[in-house]
Specification:
The chain has 484 residues and is of the alpha/beta class. It has a domain of 244 residues: Amidase signature (AS) domain (Amidase signature (AS) enzymes, Alpha-Beta Complex), CATH 3.90.1300. It contains 17 helices and 13 strands. An eleven-stranded mixed beta sheet has the order 1-3-2-6-8-7-12-13-11-9-10, with helices on both faces. A two-stranded antiparallel sheet has the order 4-5. Helix 10 crosses helix 13 and helix 10 packs across helix 14. The longest helix is centred in the C-terminal third of the chain and has 21 residues. The two termini are 17 Å apart. The model has no long low-confidence stretch (mean pLDDT 95).
Length: 484
């Protein structure tokens, strides 16, 4: 889709300004029901689009992403634009700089339509934890779009953006991609700079793209990846153009199916998954059963490490440095109802009590407990040791196979409100996705079929995980499935 629009732009069949206007019209028409966007950046987008049209008129060469409208998850800083992480804590925060990925997009001339909804500080699996709105699934608006990058996935699925950026800490790109029926890529940890991404869990977070095709994800990754002096964990990308590696041929490539992932897989999801395995076989891939023996500990390990890092990262939101501050002059009902002469500690406590939602508080408390004196060794340190074992499982598996394949999620998109009262049930949405973050490997979710439920056709996603920094192989395998 990106390449097709690019060709139309350079052949002067369309203009970027008109294309951008068309997407804003679509947003105004549909987004009242979908709720994908928190902030629209219409002035910025039109300025960017006009600039690209001028360059085309002057006969200049433009990048594949130039003039193509996109959306950005609202936990990435865009200079001069409200950046909330869907939290009351940052309701009035205007970013004073661009995240590295945004800087790179601006350099190639991408058009930024706006900032999309998410679970508060990216904590959730349904985008129901946003302080502002619930994002609905474009395939069935009674259902959720997934999380935490639900707004970015829904914007692409509802054709309210050509493509979008999300962040993935435990499945936050792949699970909503599966639920909305689009492609979502979590690159290898370090492939894309995290500078300017509001940190949730620093050893797990990674920025990645949503799009309607695997090729589009490859094009986007080529533009956002690479080493960044502002992020010490970022890695060299050798200026790879990932779209050039899409051969459409995976004959002889070995795909491992982890027995631990599929032994309890039930019902129609299993049927769709097994059909997709047969399709890989028919394309010449070699299918092999493998074992990831420590994967049963992955969810507990992930939630312990993630909550500990959340507790540390969110300590900066104290009502003093920036963002919300609850004091006697604060214009909130909370401040009026709790009017007292606050000392510094009370300002901290009241700000955090009002500014953070229930799920964020839950994870901060869990993480603070795990890191506290007397419990650090029993919880956090033990979780890090199990993480090392999970990574070793992947190292052993990749000695036998090229890719690891599973469903992206154990279910299709569930109805809004169905799991909000049961956090543990909600956390199980991440059961197949968290291992990729713990091990740091790249993973992609792509549509493998649909299931009929209550008269609606709901997408099912398949997840491929690859070797560290082998995005080209991973994208090629998913592209081969998609185009055959």
């Amino acid at each position: 889709m990106i390449r097709e629009l690019h060709n139309k732009l350079v052949n002067k069949e369309i203009t970027s300004v008109q294309l951008t206007r068309d997407y804003f019209d679509a947003i105004k028409k549909k987004d009242g029901e979908i709720g994908a966007y928190l902030t629209l950046t219409e002035e910025l987008a039109m300025r960017q689009a006009q600039l690209i049209d001028e360059r085309i008129a002057n006969g200049e060469d433009i990048d594949l992403l130039a003039g193509i409208p996109c959306a950005v998850k609202d936990n990435m800083c865009v200079d001069g634009t409200r950046t909330t992480a869907a939290s009351k804590m940052l309701d009035n925060y205007i970013a004073p700089y661009d995240a590295t990925v945004i800087k790179k997009l601006k350099e190639v001339g991408a058009v930024i339509l706006g900032k999309t909804n998410l679970d508060e500080f990216a904590m959730g699996s349904s985008t129901e934890n946003s302080a502002y709105q619930v994002t609905k699934n474009p395939n069935d608006t009674e259902r959720i779009a997934g999380g935490s990058s639900g707004g970015s996935a829904a914007a692409v699925a509802a054709s309210e953006a050509v493509w979008s950026l999300g962040s993935d800490t435990g499945g936050s790109i792949r699970q909503p991609a599966s639920f909305c029926g689009v492609v979502g890529l979590k690159p290898t940890y370090g492939r894309v700079s995290r500078y300017g991404l509001l940190a949730m869990a620093s050893s797990l977070d990674q920025i990645g793209p949503f799009a309607k095709t695997v090729e589009d994800c490859a094009i986007i990754l080529s533009r956002i990846s690479g080493q960044d002096r502002m992020d010490a964990t970022s890695a060299q990308s050798a200026d790879k153009r990932y779209e050039d590696y899409l051969t459409g041929d995976i004959k002889g490539r070995k795909i491992g199916i982890p027995k631990e992932y599929v032994e309890n897989l039930e019902g129609h999801i299993r049927d769709v998954f097994e059909k997709s395995v047969e399709k890989f076989k028919s394309l010449g891939a070699e299918i092999k059963e493998i074992s990831l023996p420590h994967s049963s500990y992955a969810l507990a390990t992930y939630y312990m490490i993630m909550a500990s890092e959340v507790s540390s990262n969110l300590a900066r939101f104290d009502g003093i440095k920036y963002g919300l501050r609850i004091n006697d002059e604060a214009k909130t009902e909370f401040a009026k109802e709790n009017a007292v002469d606050r000392n510094l500690l009370e300002t901290y406590m009241d700000t955090r009590e009002y500014g953070f939602g229930e799920e964020v508080k839950r994870r901060i408390m869990l993480g603070t407990y795990a890191l506290s004196s007397g419990y650090y060794d029993a919880y956090y340190l033990k979780a890090q040791k199990v993480r090392a074992l999970i990574k070793k499982d992947f190292e052993d598996a990749f000695k036998q196979v090229d890719f690891i394949y599973s469903p992206t999620a154990p279910e299709t998109a569930f109805k809004a409100g169905e799991k909000t009262e049961n956090p543990l049930k909600m956390y199980l949405s991440d059961i197949y996705t968290v291992t990729a973050n713990l091990a740091g490997v790249p993973a992609i979710s792509f549509p493998i079929g649909n299931l009929e439920e209550e008269g609606k056709s709901l997408p099912v996603g398949g997840q491929l995980m690859g070797k560290w920094f082998d995005e080209e192989g991973l994208l090629d395998a998913a592209h081969t499935f998609e185009t055959n």
